[in-house]
Amino acid sequence: MRHTRAVPAVATLSVTVLLLTGCGAGGAEATKASPSAGGASQPPVVLTLNASDGQKHVSVTRGGQVRVTGGSITRVSLTTADGAPVPGVPSADRRSWAPGSPLRHGTSYRLTATAADGHGHTVSRRIAFTTLAEGDRYLATHVPENGSTVGVGMPVSFTFDRPVRDRKAVESAFRITTGSGQTVVGHWFGDRRLDFRPEQYWEADSDVTVRIGLDGVEGAPGAYGEQEQTIHFHVGRRQVSTVDASAHTMRVERDGALLRTIPITAGAPGRTTWNGQMVISEKLRTTRMNGATVGFAGEYDIPDVPHAMRLSSSGTFVHGNYWGPDSVFGHENISHGCVGLNDIKGGGDQGQDAAWFYDHSLVGDVVVVRNSNDRTIAPDNGLNGWNMSWSQWRAGSAL
Length: 399
Hints:
CATH topology of the largest domain: L,D-transpeptidase catalytic domain-like
Radius of gyration: 28 Å
Distance between the termini: 11 Å
Oligomer: single chain
CATH architecture of the largest domain: Beta Barrel
Largest sheet: 9 strands, mixed
Shape: elongated
Strand content: 35-45%
Helix content: under 10%
């Protein structure tokens, strides 16, 4: 889905002789007509700044930048309010100028810029502005990571460090394109989390590009974004594993072919495993699992659980189990809600089922649980929005 962001209007500016004003990319333009020797009008000199006079909350990355068309930049002076100069770098063609490094947050600046055409006609602008204070910004963390290869179930998930009130403005700042041509739609889980996914799993062996354009977007009163970033990730092969809790098995299928059927142990009565489509969100060679963190205080505390792959934020994993007897795998459900695979202490035997599954899995692979005596996992418990219908998912978009 391609999103565009509206550019706010800026205050009218005036320059001597014949000047026009208008809206640039978040800034202001000063224009002067340039008559030629024969009297015919030449393209005007258009000087564009990325801020207007008196503007607050200006971007630390775009603030101070200058652009010109119909001429070239002859002089730029950028200083702090107390007169300290800010070094800058002009482009080779002198059509643009930018500070040598991002500006400081919450700082007042004065900017003077002059441009001229080949006939000696000049345009100048002088403004004062203040950059966005650190306390007035919001940030978004995201998965997957840039440059990663993920499974077909991996959503693009953003978590904001403060509540978002203007969901439409924020969601519009993201643009996601796919090499497969799949349509991607956002869904809000509350006011701090925004996930994107297509109707069906991502197509295998495809590429996804995520453009983040939050710089200057007011997500809540007095809270502005500043992230401008492009993320690329690759979708690998299609692997979907299906756990049958009543049959105590897991079928691992890749690209439509059965790779392996693994005997498992799922949640015991009263501690059953969620049903539904779950996405591997994290892989840990070894981790500690303490029942006190998930409502089973005093029932277990295992410091070295091997080959653990997270399926929910509430503590559901598929992991190696070395403490259960071999006889339970494929025959009994004894866990506290996780899916256990046979393993040894330390996880050093690559011939064990848990080691094999760990080595053959990606973050973003799908694990589907069926026939457990429990309800379907909540879509926001982990990266598990696939448990919503497409119409339910689209209803959660602000656009």
